[in-house]
Amino acid sequence: MKFFEDESQNLRARFATIQIIVFALLAVLAGRLYFLQIVRGSYYAERAENQRIRLLPIPAPRGVIMDRYGRVIVDSRPIYNIILSREDVKGKDLSALVEPLSQGLNLDPEFLRERFEQMRTMPAFESVRIKENATPADIAWVEAHKLEFPELRVEQQPQRQYPPDGLLAHVLGYVGEISPKQLEDPKYKEKGYKPGDIIGQEGVEAVYDEYLRGRDGYRRVVVDSRGHIQAVLEEVPPQPGQDMVLTIDLDLQRAAEEQLKKMPTKRGVIIVMDPNNGEILAMASYPTFDPNLFSQRITTREGRAEYAALLRDPQHPLYNRAIRGRYPPGSTWKIPMAIAGLEQGAITVEHSRLLCGGGILIGNKFTRCMGNHGMPDLRTAIMKSCDGYFYRLGLKMGIDGIMRMVDELELNKRTGVDLPHELRSWTPSPEFKARFNPRDPQWKDIDTVYASFGQVYEFVTPLALLRAIAAIGVGGKLYTPHLLKEFRPVREMGPFPARPGKVYEQPAPKIVPIRPEHHKLVVDGMWAVVNDAGTAARIRMPGFDIAGKTGTAQVVSLGKDVGKNKDHSWFVSYAPAYKPEIAALALIENVGFGASYAAPAVRAIYDVYYEKTRGAPAPQLAMNR
Amino acid sequence: MMAAIFEKRRYRDFDWLLAILATGIVLFGTWQIYNAQPTANYWQKQLIGLAIALVTMLVVALTDYRKVVQYAPAFYIFGLLLLVIVLIPGIGLKINGQRCWIGVPGVGQFQPSEFVKIPTILMLARQFGKPRQGPLSWKEIAIGIAILALPVGLILLEPDAGSALTYFPLLAVVLFLSAIRLWIVIAALVLGLASVPTAYTIGVKTGFIKSYQQERIKVILDPENADRRGYGYHTWQSILTVGRGRVFGTWGETEYSQSRLKFLPEPHTDFIFAVTAETTGFVGSISLLIAYVLLLSRLFSNARRAPDRTGMLVIMGLIGGLAFQIFINIGMVLGLLPVIGVPLPLMSAGVSSVLATFIGIGFAISVRMRRFVN
């Protein structure tokens, strides 16, 4: 080729130069390929793997909660939740999602904003539930807007189902998503809770969360770039939580709640307990609430409004009155006083007579009795609820004696019931007076008189009072009231080891020294309250001897105790009187005399109990007095 | 009739190696297109495109390139016309903001910017193909620039910067082989290298280079720390895809490949090399590189044996275009260069690109077949 040999143009060299450049560039590519695929291949392979493989938790169902006969009270049922995958919204402007999502899924925009704020501040959120219990319409909406909002997905999850009418609500409590604050609490941190976990927030759900909660399983899945699941590589099913058997007897519980519902104010407490071991058979506090609000509806607009209304409600429906209500015990206080008076030697079985006198004059202040009972013995004083008698008994015991009594019966302690937020009762002491009435801090005789009739210096929780009365009933054994009977075992599942059953272990009861003759005398008095001509004679059950004591706790001073400020009505009891099987207490707020409301409410409980245990309809009094 | 044209001598002189290499690469590419998008019909279209391309190549190869070069201005003007037509809304189809397709009823659509390279090469070869006397004059350089500037300007109006870029090596190679003074070459290189950072800075300041374009450049310099979810996404996913192939590739398990899971964008077109690297590993991708080296070597050999300067320049222009495009595309896939929408010749799905490349190869064969004729 002539033209090619033309040295004047350097053509050969120029041609070669182009050749060299072309092959050099290709060599660079080959070098880069070697680096990416051979030197760093496994690194990139791993990175690619990480972006396609995801672990999706399968939430475990919580253990079922049953009553003592195995009747299911709380269950979990599968529902659909709408999840927002965090991976897919990184770097997106979340505030732009608030409007369309709240409209499309009927969510509170404020709630969504909070959720997004949580996501922003807490990197641990893999994905966030934005709607629980999605309706078919919600699911259809998510499907229809897959292109617009690829970060949404629908997941199945077990959801807690509580009885719809608020039955046993205060005992059961409720579950809810772990809060950011709880996540930072070392108490929760140690147990390895993660964001988004549903945990027990109140009641036995909270106390026994560890046992009730299951172990979450997971699915290892392949996702595409939009987070849509392409394949499931591995599935580890969750291990359900341990089923819980409560000491509660649903029949008694229902009866108790019916009674409270029937009361004029619809406010009060009924507690039923086995005095021989502290098992709580019923615990009703009214008004009640629907725990499903917290487990199901709290994320919706309506649910949040409902919650706000509950918080504002002046009747405090969320409040478990049995352990958080502090009420003056009124005349029920006379039972501990009677036992302590005998044990401390202020009176004896033989010489128990004290003057009633229609009241007592201390200095220039006369404190009256409701009647004039002459010079009654202890049995009569209890039966007739003679205040004058107990003023004088209190003076004989002195404030030290009353304080010793409080200590012995642990009226100044928490009962140790397996529920959260139990309050301690207030009991008389010079210190309490000094704090309570700083203008007149000196303890005087008149204060001792006040301290002996349950109206001024004592504010007790219904459970603490019932516990003390029940202990007196069984001759001085102070058991810890409790709700747990047992946890059923769960068998081994996949990587999760078996979980053994657990029976409630009653700590050894505190022995309160009560001599048998003292015990008999006080029980005689309590028997007479119902079975002789006592204050609660109208609830007598022939063949089932109830021992009890009425109480009327003044809310305001005499004369103003009408309408809203009516007295609280008490009745504490156990039965049968000389061989107790069951102890029951009722406190009805602001209805008046103990005999007229609380005692009949307790009687209704005994009716149910009698029918259950005796296999016959409860005996009725021929003539209702 | 075919047989008549295809007489014995021509059968012997036909460049079988070049045709087989090119066809082999397209078939290999079709398999990768299938791997990338098995559910779509791109791979079938590619096979149809290959059939059309082979016939076209044969026709071009059997035509005397010198006659074609004679009519180069006509082809060139026709090409420019197509580039104007594509800009007319209604005829030119707008895809991803670029109006670079012409829809032909009943046939489909084609991309004029792919085809106009051929008349441009022919035009340049015609202009610079005459026996040379001494170094290139400024006037000649200006004519060369003008020949290039017309199609490049029209393509930039689409706007398709990637395609426009692939035209520059055509002129560069032709000028370099036409005794352009070395000092001009060196000056251009120095100026070019120096102007890149300067132009970049000015471009950023004046807003001519958009922020996404900046991101695409940043990701090259440091892919690990770049915005891997934003504009760095393509490069990062491409690197992962290539790396995932390791030595032997993933072969059977294409079901959860990067492209099937939609992590890798445009897997059948711009990022086809990443798919190849993932499925066939280093072994497969280096083999493909070797196939390109063989193809280019054969083209170099054909150029060296060309009967005249014109033939040599046609092939060298073709080499310049192909080599540049291969480097730009694979460099982008391997994270060496920013993302530019340039197809990988013979591999990427797209009938226009395959057809245009085969027409170019047809000319190279035509030149070789006439090496002993004067």
Automatic annotation (TrEMBL), chain A:
GO cellular component: plasma membrane
Membrane topology: Single-pass membrane protein
Record domain Penicillin-binding protein transpeptidase: where: 268-606
Primary site of residence: membrane
Listed GO MF terms: glycosyltransferase activity; penicillin binding; peptidoglycan L,D-transpeptidase activity; serine-type D-Ala-D-Ala carboxypeptidase activity
Keywords: Carboxypeptidase, Cell inner membrane, Cell membrane, Cell shape, Cell wall biogenesis/degradation, Glycosyltransferase, Hydrolase, Membrane, Peptidoglycan synthesis, Protease, Transferase, Transmembrane, Transmembrane helix
Record-linked Pfam families: PBP_dimer, Transpeptidase
Subcellular location: Cell membrane; Membrane
Gene3D superfamilies, per database record: DD-peptidase/beta-lactamase superfamily, Penicillin-binding protein 2a (Domain 2), Penicillin-binding protein 2a, domain 3
Membrane-spanning ranges: 12-35
Gene Ontology BP terms: cell wall organization; peptidoglycan biosynthetic process; proteolysis; regulation of cell shape
EC class: transferase
Residue stretches in coiled coil: none
Enzyme Commission designation: 2.4.1.129
Annotated ranges, domain Penicillin-binding protein dimerisation: 57-231
InterPro entries assigned to the protein according to its UniProt record, in alphabetical order: Beta-lactam/transpept, Beta-lactam/transpept-like, PBP_dimer, PBP_dimer_sf, PCN-bd_Tpept, Penicillin-binding_protein_2
Classification via PANTHER family: PEPTIDOGLYCAN D,D-TRANSPEPTIDASE, PEPTIDOGLYCAN D,D-TRANSPEPTIDASE MRDA
Protein name per Swiss-Prot or TrEMBL: Peptidoglycan glycosyltransferase
Native organism: Pyrinomonas methylaliphatogenes
From TrEMBL, chain B:
An example molecular function term from Gene Ontology annotations: lipid-linked peptidoglycan transporter activity
Entry-linked InterPro entries: FtsW/RodA (IPR001182)
Principal subcellular localization: membrane
GO biological process: cell division; regulation of cell shape
Cellular component, GO, one term: cell division site
Topological relation to the membrane, as annotated: Multi-pass membrane protein
Subcellular location: Membrane
Domain of life from the UniProt record: Bacteria
Keyword DNA damage recorded: no
Spans through the membrane: 16-34, 46-63, 75-95, 141-158, 170-194, 271-300, 312-340, 346-367
Protein name stated in the entry: Bacterial cell division membrane protein
Lineage, opening ranks: Bacteria, Pseudomonadati, Acidobacteriota, Blastocatellia, Blastocatellales
